[in-house]
Amino acid sequence: RTAFVGGHQTEKQGCCGITCCPKSRGNTIVILRAGNEDIMLGPHYIMLMCTYVIVVGLSTVIYGVVLNQREEGERIAGLVLTILVILSLTVLALKDPGVAPISSEPVGEMSTFCEKCQSYRVRGTIHCNDCDVCVEDYDHHCPWSSKCIGKRNVAWFHLFLGLLFILMVYDGVQTVLVLVEEG
Predict the structure, then answer these.
(1) Which listed residue (128, 134, 142, 148) is catalytic?
(2) CA dist 86 to 42, 59, 78, 162, 170, Å?
(3) Which residues of 49-73 are buried (b: 16+ CB within 10 A; e: fewer)?
C-alpha cells in the first residue's frame, strides 16, 4: 500500500485509521501515523539528545546543589518547571511541523512547484534542505529540536522557549539567593 511520488514515500489510509508507517518522509522518520497526524523525528536526533542532556543535566545540578538548600515549595516549583520544559520539547520534537502533502496537480491559484519534492505546494510552503520536505508556513530549521518549525509546531516551539527561559531565570535567581545566604 506504499507508493513513491517524486522520490518521496507516501501511504494510503488503512481501514482502521492507522496506517503502516513509511520508514521516512524526506529525511524525517515517521514513527506513527494516526489519521492525518504524523508523529515524526527529524534528521538531527543526536542534537535532540544533546538538548535533553543539557536540560536534564543542568537541572539535576541546580536541583542537587542549589535547590536542595531551599524550601520544599521552591524545590517543587523547580522540578515542575523542568518537567514542563522536557514535555514541551518532547511534543515539539515529535510533532509534524506541517509537512506539505505530495501533489501532482496545482493546489490553488497561488501554488508553486518544488523541484526537489517534484510536487506542487501552497503559497508560503518552503522546502527545508535539512529535512528534505516542504513545510507549510516554514519558519526555520532547528537542529536542537531535530526538525523544522512550521505551521503545526510553531506554538510548541514558542512554549518550549518560554518555559526554558522561565526555568533559566528561576534557577539563576535561586542560585543567587543561595550564594547571598552563604556569603
Answers:
(1) 142
(2) 17, 11, 12, 12, 16
(3) eebeeebeeebeebbeebbeebeee
Mapping DSSP to helix (H, G, I), strand (E, B) and coil, where does residue 20 land? Answer: coil
142 catalytic per annotation: yes
Cα 25 to Cα 84, 88, 175, 181, distances in angstroms: 29, 23, 44, 54
pLDDT digits (tens, 9 = 90+) for 32-91: 887 778 899 999 999 999 999 999 999 999 988 888 888 899 999 999 999 999 999 999
Query: Cell digits for 107?
Result: 493546489
Q: What is d(CA 81, CA 73) in angstroms, rounded to the nearest whole number?
A: 12
